[in-house]
Each structure stands twice: as C-alpha cells, then as structure tokens.
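Sat 14:20. Reprocessing the chain from the morning session after the first attempt stalled halfway. Input below, unchanged.
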Amino acid sequence: MFEISKGLRVLITGASGGIGKEIATTFGDYGASVGIHYNNNKNEALDLAQYIKSVGGLASIFSKDLIDLDDQSNLIQDFVNEYGGIDVLVNNAGANIGNRNFLEIDTNSLIDTMNLNYIAPFLLSREAFKFMKDSGGGRIVNISSISAKYGGSLQSMHYAAAKSALESLTISFSKAGAEYNILVNTVRPGFIDTAFHKKAPKHNISERLDLIPLKRMGTPKDIAQMVLFLTSPAANYITGQVFSVSGGE
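Finished this time. Tokens:
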C-alpha cells in the first residue's frame, strides 16, 4: 500500500503492547529497523523483536521509565548508537495515571500524567530533532487521544489536557522542523479495541459505541496504518496536522 524503505530506522515508545505493538509489527512487516521501547513488559518486547527479525526486519529493545525524566534521557542516543541514526520517532507511550474523579486526584498523578504524555515526548522529540536535522530530515508522529478533542471525562480531564499539550507541541515542532525536512504530525485515536478499553463494563462500551457514527471500535491496525502513511513518501507535503482515526467522531 505504501512505499516504505527497507531498513527505515524507527523508534516507537510504549511498543510492547496495544497500539504501540501493532505499529512496531507493521513497520517490521515492511522490513524496518525497529526500536521497541518498553517499561515493564520485557518478555512481550522480546517476543515482538523476535517476530520482526523473523519477517526480515531488524529489532532491538530499550527499557526506560518515561515518567522518570532522568531515566529516559539516553533513549534516543541508545537507539542512534544501535542503528547509526534515527529516521522516525513515534511518541506512542501514554496513560491516564490516577484515573479517578478530578475532586479526588492527587498531585503526583497529575505530574506523572503530564510527564509521560507531554514532557517525555517533548524531550525525546527535541533529542531526535538534533540527529534528524543533520541527516536530511525525518518524521515524528505523536499519538494523542480523542479525549483531547472533547476535554476528557471527570476522571480523565488531566489526561486530555496532557494530550492537548502534545497536539500543540506537534504544531510548534513542525514549524521548527520545516527548514530541515523534519515532518511532525499527530494521530488522534478514538475508541480502539485494546486491553484498556476491554476492562470497561459492557453497558459502558455499548453507550460509547452509540456515540460513534461507524458504530464500532477501531483496531490498533487502523492506527498503525495511519502512522505508516505519515512516514511514507505519500505524506511528503504533510506536517503540523492532527489526524483523527475515530470512526467519525
């Protein structure tokens, strides 16, 4: 479907499960060199790396806690040391930390949510930018959330705010990157069929589906295909944009 150069050097954060795993798998199927970042799920990351190698790609795993801003500081450099550069950074890792009513949420949950969903992508993008601008360009794709569009719920407004900040960052970085052929975009997933959403009660899922024009959940593959498109030559004239993959929401 898309022309992806074999050996494209791609680092994906939060790649050991869910949407991140599907993004990594999709790049691996096209023969990319994939950096699989994970925090706790080492076995899943190793299995994913083994799969990518089995289909002709290259893969390495990288363990960092992105909430700990000191721990994540060498992630880009570690990837560059492994593959000699970086062509694509996908800031996928994210979570709603402290998923409770805003009247009860603690300050640490607010800080951790902002660190993971906004500050870590800022720092990683800035570091990747330094390498990309000296090597002819690159692509940065941020993974946001439909909650950024609606402001989230009473339990997730802090998460929505962090993702909104990430979308704003996309625009800022795209302006800075234009001179160097560094294209920066955001994919905004809607209600996606992942383990996170499967935990919700069935009646909540039914009510949620009623709000979606296509009346179904999306799949991680839907998101991965959009990321693949944005990193292909088909998207050479696209930067600073937010693409909702949300069934019409």
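The chain has nine helices and seven strands.
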